[in-house]
């Protein structure tokens, strides 16, 4: 599928070059007639081939420069297609390219139109490829490929005339600022069999370019001639620099070296074909339905590539799974070996101990009790967390003392007011009832809190607001009851409110202290 063929078509012959591993193979020549088409079909039918690239070098190739209103998007493309169809109605092989905009006036687009005006020279070969269902990648022109040769040769003159000798004759292509503007093909020999005078043909081309305003009067036309050394030796005496013409000569072996050819050819055909094989541009002349087999080939190649990627990914995934299975099997065997060692050590340890057999029901009950203690046993830490949350939101409060106690459900609050879990004197406590441990249900918990408000006591409003905010924040906690034992300020209407305010020291004799009882009900 990856063996391509490059075809070079002139008015007399067609050369078929296989393209493999980045180079042209040995060419096979066919006459440009019905017998040659049949011979070509027999030849290609016996060869492994992939995409086919057809390059033409015909004298029946026309170039026109036009200006169009600057229109972008779909409307612009339709305008170009309509103008191209109006210019070349008799041929399906048309080409258009916008080359910039005019510097003055409306700044219209400058477009280059081109077409093969004698499609009968090309159609038999395209029809033969369709009969073979060969993937025709595109139809190309040596003239439209010459900009690639100009870039390879490093030519950067503003007004450049490139002269190359090809199978069809002497090709002269004019470039302005690196863009192709005009091309003409003349015979390499005249009717008498003598070589054509290149200097005279260059003068004719320069006269035409001047008449079409592609080059101004007095401007120098740089003419670059690419030919073998022997031909250049013959042409140099003929081509003398003039007031408006400057000749430059590039040997064919230099052009071949820059293109990537090992051997210098006699004609520029293989140089241009090599550039085509290296770059593989999109088709230049429209082919329409003739490219459908190439599109199918490209889709098939994409499917094959996707299948190869999928197969590679599957093999990688399979290898990873096999490696993981092997690793897991090894780890399982190691774990079984370790478990056997632990069992042996456990049995050896049990053999040295005095047998102590207990009932299963008692062990189950002990586990249940332990779980209940963990789940329902009274703990001060949740209380402390709720208190810390409230203190973070009211930073004016400073704790002085905390007393935490629990109240069994069966006993009144007054009876257990002093039942704390520890005493200051260190006297041993009596056995604790299961109710105190949260069995069978969780017990209420009480936290006695003594704190002060870190604001000036003479600022009674701030003291009251801080106290209210703190108690409200505590009351928001679920199942929490807040009881105010001592207010920081006595706000009863029957009591006289007194104190110092506005003194020199700004302080008072006592702090704004208060006492709260926080009761958590399960």
From TrEMBL:
<keyword id="KW-1133">Transmembrane helix</keyword>
<protein>
    <recommendedName>
        <fullName>GspL cytoplasmic actin-ATPase-like domain-containing protein</fullName>
    </recommendedName>
</protein>
<keyword id="KW-0472">Membrane</keyword>
<keyword id="KW-0812">Transmembrane</keyword>
<feature type="transmembrane region" description="Helical">
    <location>
        <begin position="301"/>
        <end position="320"/>
    </location>
</feature>
């Amino acid at each position: 599928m990856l063996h391509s063929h490059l075809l070079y078509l002139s008015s007399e012959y067609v050369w078929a070059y296989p393209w493999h591993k980045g180079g042209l193979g040995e060419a096979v020549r066919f006459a440009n007639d019905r017998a040659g088409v049949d011979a070509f079909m027999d030849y290609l039918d016996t060869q492994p081939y992939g995409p086919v690239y057809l390059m033409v070098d015909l004298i029946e190739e026309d170039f026109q420069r036009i200006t169009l209103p600057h229109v972008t998007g779909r409307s612009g493309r339709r305008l170009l297609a309509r103008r191209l169809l109006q210019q070349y109605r008799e041929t399906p092989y048309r080409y258009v390219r916008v080359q910039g905009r005019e510097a003055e006036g409306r700044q219209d687009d400058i477009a280059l139109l081109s077409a093969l005006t004698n499609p009968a020279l090309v159609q038999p070969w395209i029809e033969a490829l369709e009969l073979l269902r060969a993937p025709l990648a595109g139809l190309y022109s040596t003239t439209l490929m010459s900009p690639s040769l100009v870039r390879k040769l490093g030519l950067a003159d503003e007004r450049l005339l490139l002269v190359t000798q090809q199978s069809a004759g002497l090709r002269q292509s004019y470039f302005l600022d690196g863009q192709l503007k005009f091309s003409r093909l003349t015979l390499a020999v005249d009717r008498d069999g003598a070589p054509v005078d290149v200097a005279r043909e260059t003068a004719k081309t320069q006269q035409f370019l001047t008449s079409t305003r592609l080059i101004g009067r007095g401007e120098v036309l740089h003419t670059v001639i690419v030919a073998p050394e022997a031909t250049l030796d013959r042409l140099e005496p003929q081509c003398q620099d003039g007031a408006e013409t400057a000749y430059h000569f590039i040997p064919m072996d230099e052009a071949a070296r820059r293109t990537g050819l090992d051997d210098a050819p006699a004609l520029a055909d293989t140089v241009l074909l090599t550039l085509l094989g290296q770059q593989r541009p999109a088709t230049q002349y429209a082919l329409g339905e003739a490219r459908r087999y190439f599109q199918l080939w490209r889709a098939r190649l994409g499917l094959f590539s996707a299948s190869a990627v999928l197969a590679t990914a599957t093999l990688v995934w399979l290898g990873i799974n096999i490696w993981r299975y092997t690793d897991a099997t090894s780890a399982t065997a190691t774990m079984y070996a370790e478990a056997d060692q632990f069992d042996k050590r456990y049995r050896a340890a049990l053999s040295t101990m005095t047998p102590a057999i207990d009932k299963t029901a008692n062990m189950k009950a002990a586990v249940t009790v332990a779980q209940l203690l963990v789940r329902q046993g009274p703990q001060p830490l949740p209380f402390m967390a709720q208190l810390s949350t409230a203190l973070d939101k009211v930073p004016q409060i400073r704790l002085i003392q905390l007393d935490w106690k629990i109240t069994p459900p069966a006993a009144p609050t007054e009876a257990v007011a002093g039942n704390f879990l520890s005493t200051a004197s260190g006297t041993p406590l009596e056995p604790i009832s299961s109710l105190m441990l949260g069995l069978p249900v969780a017990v209420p918990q009480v936290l006695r809190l003594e704190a002060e408000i870190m604001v000036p006591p003479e600022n009674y409003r701030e003291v009251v607001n801080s106290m209210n905010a703190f108690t409200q924040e505590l009351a928001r906690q679920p199942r929490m009851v807040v009881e105010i034992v001592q207010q920081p300020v006595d706000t009863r209407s029957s009591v006289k409110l007194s104190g110092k305010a506005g003194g020199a020291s700004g302080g008072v004799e006592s702090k704004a202290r208060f006492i709260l009882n926080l009761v958590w009900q399960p």
